[in-house]
Design brief:
Elements lengths: L3 H14 L3 E2 H8 L3 H13 L4 E4 L5 E4 L12 H12 L9 H14 L2 H9 L18 H13 L3 E5 L56 E11 L2 E8 L4 E6 L3 E4 L16 H8 L17 E7 L3 H5 L6 E6 L2 E8 L2 H9 L5 E5 L1 H18 L8
Antiparallel strand pairs: 1-3, 2-3, 4-5, 4-8, 5-6, 6-7, 9-11, 9-12, 10-11
Length: about 375
Amino acid sequence: MPKTSARLLSLLSLLQARRDWPGALLAERLDVSPRTVRRDVDRLRELGYPVVAMKGPDGGYRLDAGTELPPLLFDDEQAVALAVALQIATTTGAGIEEAAARALNTVRQVLPARLRHRVDTLRVTAVDRPAIRPEPQVDSDVLMAIGAAVHGREVLRFDYSPVSGPVRATIGTSEGCEGTPATPPGSAAPSGAAAPPAPPRGTPPQTPRHSDPPPPRRVEPHHLVTWGRRWYLVAWDLDRDDWRTFRADRITPRTPTGPRFPPRELPGGSVAAFITARFRGIGATQGPDGVGGWPCRGEVILSLPAAEVLRHTREGIVEELGPDRCRVVLGSWSWPGLAAAIGRFDADIEVIGPPELASAFAHLATRYAAVGQPRAAPNP
């Protein structure tokens, strides 16, 4: 049997890990008797930890919240996880870099010497990908207000600011309007979204007319998610009667919040599936072939082992047809993009379909052949 002090730390760590613990399960995890668990719970109460006993056939315990809760205790794995999380907080886009650094310093000071040494040896340098322009930061108060509305299932009202600066066509962002990512070059615009015609060259920029500010949006907030270092709110828009995604850095919450609402079932089965499909520019459904809702999907046979193709394919289907042949089903934003993605495997290709993919290969072949021709020397 472990010593009492070590056993108390283990018991406290278990109580912090989940809300309710049956007494028999705690005894099993600690490898002690239920009577010993009851004694250890009494010792924790004497130290100031509010452990509440639950009545019932099995009984159990819960670590209750309180304003006088003593300092939390971390085991080795929790200390390392906390140090890593606080050090990479600079890449979250939540505007909490300074607070995270202060929190890490505070946690370090109260850790035992052994754990402090482990944390000090783990220095993580968080480096963001270079961007054309700085990514917008989200006020932590905005995130807290959105999170509170999601947790309370209360209708959220907010002002939604327009996009500032030029709009980039970037996969995985919703620069244009909420719920619709920008369309990459070479692909069709999402259904239902008509692109405005480009003005003739030399046309001076038009000065926008003064208009009344738009009314606040009214939504049923369901999830607060991060995607590509940006924060998004997934919500049911009450005025548009449809699901929408909103960039959190453009949200200014209004108070008070509205009435409570019963939760709706999110399309796609999960928030991850919904967000992934939405940022691909189509609905939140998954195709029967497993490559999801890419606008362009094709099937080819590559003269490569399936295992070699799988190492470089994050999405799609790879089926082994022999030692050096495999069937590949992939998706992309455009047919030329799909043909280029398949061509990177540097192997013989047999197109199964559709015809648009074969035409894209012919188009790229003509373009590449023209690039490969030697250029004539300029006349002196």
